[in-house]
Amino acid sequence: MFSQNKKIIRDIVPNPFSDQYIPKQLPVRQDMVDFLAEKYYRSITRGYGGTDITLIYGSLGRVGIGKTTIAKASAYKLEGIARNRGINFRWIYINAYYVPTIHEIINRILSPLSRGAPARGTSLTDKLRMLSDIIYTNALKLLIIIDEVQSILLAGKKDEIEKFYVLMRLHETLPIEPGDSWIGYILVAQDNTVLSLFREILPQVESQIGHRILLDPYRTDELYKILLERASSGLEPGTWDDSVLEKIACYYGIDCPEAGDPVGSARKAIIALRNAAEYAEIHGLGYINDLAVSHALAEDAGYSVDRAALSSLSKHELLLLYAIAQLTLEKGDYSTTGEVRRLYEELAERYGEKPRGHTQVNEYTRRLAAKGLIIARPSGRGVRGRTTLLRVAQEIPADRLRSELYLILEGKVELG
Ligand code: ADP
Predict the structure, then answer these.
(1) How far is 209 from 52, CA to CA, in rounded Å?
(2) What is the mean pLDDT of residues 341-348?
(3) Does the CB atom of residue 266 touch ligand 1 within 6 A?
(4) Which residue in 315, 271, 314, 322 sits closest to 296, CA to CA?
(5) What's the rounded Cα separation, in Å, for the pair 82 and 74?
(6) Peptide bond into 112 cis (omega under 30)
(7) For residues 336 and 383, is the Cβ–Cβ distance under 8 A?
(8) How far apart are CA 325 and CA 404, in angstroms?
(9) 226 Cβ closer than 6 Å to some ligand 1 atom
(10) Is the CB of 337 under 6 A from ligand 1?
């Protein structure tokens, strides 16, 4: 425990496990970033023609699917292009959920541009004039990212909505000559309800949204690539392997048949990898094993061994589950039904029970899977013949489950 020399997480800045970290090249959806950056670059060099508003939103109820990341990565990319070409470009990110008023949003835009905040009490009109003066006199190209934009509309305050409208029309106060000044926007919203909100409250802005990007939850292969980038840059070499990433990616992947929580969230997957690494580090394992992954997922799922659920199992189901828990621990992976049956039979004899036959064991297996305690899946390539592979559900730490089953089988705990 608490070994000092089995470090797994690298001490580097920026920390690839922090929420602010954005890889220079996204392992997934870089094409969207390139497209957006190119689109805005063209708009900047073309000069001011209309508004450039992009709306990025997600599938209903989905978080951690890259909305903010795509917006910021596009701004970084644009910043790089502009620097190389000597263009005076700045971008500002504001999360409207945490910045309650438009007045405050404008302060946040102004203060990094104007060296010092405007005097208190300056009116909104004066602030907007200051802003457009700064943009004009510096031939500045300014990209404003407003995250959680729905919170401005949902607040439903009429005067705030009017002010927001003025902010979104700021470009109209700028001269039109190409190459001078420019303002573009990326609005980020949770989901498509923002579109009906815009239509209802601010149709003038809705009609100017030139580009809409709907992001889907991540698939398993996409999560794998995202995790691979984090692991390669944030973990010590030799402390992890592909199976760790595959298990986490499959647990959250929207399309994985064995997913425990198919939400498609990159945020959850990255946190799980970090927690698995921490677990392995704290326990001095030297590398991330299957158990570390299970403990990390249990943390997210809030899983604890539920005696009441175990109490509904028959003695033979308990024995079978014990065999599966034992083998999952030993292998850190699936076992074949044959292996499970052999151990189950041994255990049954040890506990003075006559082992049940094939059909009955298959029925127990089905019931344990239906209760979410184990995963049963058909063997794929690499296993001779066709069999079912079994393991304890990924988010159930097999060590905890095994100890609990041991106590029950030994009659050391009363079941409810
Ligand atoms: P959302 O805005 O949809 O809630 P975020 O953009 O904040 O999600 O992403 C959540 C986490 O997942 C962040 O740590 C982010 O860096 C990471 N992430 C999301 N999409 C990608 C991607 N395509 N490539 C690399 N990391 C990503």
Answers:
(1) 7
(2) 97
(3) yes
(4) 271
(5) 12
(6) no
(7) yes
(8) 11
(9) yes
(10) no
Joined tokens for residue 184: 């573009």
Residue 102's nearest CA partner among 151, 158, 163 is: 163
**pLDDT at residue 381, rounded to an integer:** 63
pLDDT for 179 equals 57
First to last CA, the chain: 34
Write down the pTM of the prediction.
0.92
Using DSSP's 3-state secondary structure scheme, residue 280 falls into: helix
Q: Span 376-397, mean pLDDT?
A: 86
The tens digit of pLDDT for each residue in 173-231 reads: 776 665 578 899 999 999 999 999 999 999 988 888 989 999 999 999 999 999 999 99
Three-class SS of residue 212? strand
Instruction: Please say whether the beta carbons of 404 and 305 come within 8 A.
Output: yes
DSSP 8-state assignment for residue 218: P
Compute the residue count for the chain: 416
What confidence category does residue 1 fall into, taking pLDDT thresholds of 50, 70 and 90? Answer: very low
Write the residue with the smallest CA distance to atom 5 of ligand 1: 66
The dihedral built from the CA positions of residue 402, 405, 411 and 413, taken in this order, carries a sign that is positive
CA distance 333 to 246: 12
What pLDDT does 61 receive? 81
Residues 413, 318 contacting (CB under 8 angstroms): no
**Cα(330)–Cα(398) distance, rounded to whole angstroms?**
10
Q: In this predicted structure, what is the pLDDT of residue 309?
A: 81
In the block, tokens 């995250």 appear at 147
Question: Using an 8 Å Cβ cutoff, are 329 and 409 in contact?
Answer: no
Query: pLDDT tens-digit profile of 120-177?
Result: 778 888 988 888 889 888 889 999 999 999 999 988 788 899 999 999 988 777 766 6
C-alpha to C-alpha distance for 73 and 63, rounded to whole angstroms? 17
Q: Quick one: what percent of the chain has pLDDT higher than 90? A: 73
User: Ligand 1 in contact with 69 (CB < 6 A)?
Assistant: yes
Answer yes or no: is the C-beta of 64 below 6 A from any ligand 1 atom: yes
Rounded CA separation 231/249 (Å): 13
* Ligand 1 pocket residue status of 65, Cβ below 6 Å: yes
Residue appearing with tokens 């502009």:
82
CA of 68 to the centre of ligand 1 (A): 7
